[in-house]
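To start, an entry.
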Amino acid sequence: MMRAPLADLPVVFDNVSLRAGGRPIVDRVSISIDPGAPTLVVGPNGAGKSTLLRLCMGLVAPSEGRVSWGGRSDVKPTRRAFVFQRPVMLRRTAAANLAYSLAQAGVAREQRPARVKKLLEQVGLSELADRPARRLSGGEQQRLALARALARDPDLLLLDEPTASLDPAATRSVEEIVRTAAQSGIKVVMASHDLGQVRRLAGNVIFLVRGALREHAAADVFLNSPSTPEAAAFVRGDLVV
């Protein structure tokens, strides 16, 4: 079942810059992130992908310009969730990590056991419910991090290169969770360095170079007929600096 219109969308960047030490990390970006298929944020290392996600979440405020969610700048991030590239696991079981996330999201205590069970099933970790989270493999920890994010029942799910350090089998498992979340109506915005992942998951692509927006296009257009020399070089696999 698809969701009602999402209160936090579109996320609109209006001439947004974020500077650190006088250097632009994100440089005068104007863009609208709309409901629909996943948006993948790509670009070379240091392009500003992670910072763009943090601005989307509201974890950092722009130095210049304005970020708005559903037309407002004062929306609390209660229906947004963020998964870091290397998520920190609490010193408790996988199930208890999820129960904690549900408590933080305001889910009533009596509802939590059933929700924990469903979330573990959703990410394929039911048999590891009682294992200490820090003893899970890297791929299992990333799936648990996704489950913790989904425990917030988000409208907007922000993922910072969640498969960067995973092997192909673990990557496939994470991508399947992402695909299922997107199909349920959650808007996924995901940073990636992997063009194969763009082909497999993206509805559209945001391409950054040195903090500046170089291209925002449907994934097939970006991959097959990029409109800037930097994007064409990136798609070919050339180094872009």
Summary: The helical segments are 49-57, 94-104, 112-122, 138-150, 168-183, 195-201, 219-224, 229-236. The chain has a mean pLDDT of 95.
